[in-house]
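INFO batch 0412 | record 1 of 1 | parsing
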Amino acid sequence: MSFVFPTPDETMDFGRALGRVLRAGDLVLLAGPLGAGKTTLTRGIADGLGVGGRVSSPTFVLARVHPAGASGVPLVHVDAYRLGGDLSQLDDLDLDTDLERSAIVVEWGEGSAERLSDDYLVVRLDRREDDVREITLEPHGSWTDRVPELAQSWGVGAGVGD
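INFO prediction complete | emitting tokens
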């Protein structure tokens, strides 16, 4: 399932819809080039979850934990860009423990973080030359059944394709 977002605000709105359907134990992997909108989408996810704290890229600290808000689900935001495939550093973050009680969003996590769970959602972001964002969802495990719920909460219609 794919979506097209002409503005960063629409990317944030989609993130909010995704955040509203997240629950403890969810793993979301964000894939895409620099500037595609991964952190913008994560800000929307955090807002949808209602978590506290300012959301910014955790590039230099690798992970930030945002306390639970109205949803009761904390957000762990990880940026695996600097790891360069060094899985030992990812293991040091103890994400498998956090996954039991938090939603985890990993930027640049594809190829390493999916081993944390059989149930995960890959969100591919691409930024076209005209600054339009394209987002493609690749569900795995239980996400196969949950993506239609997300599409419904977003409102299938303009900008949505299969």
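INFO post-check: The first strand starts at residue 2 and ends at 5.
INFO record closed
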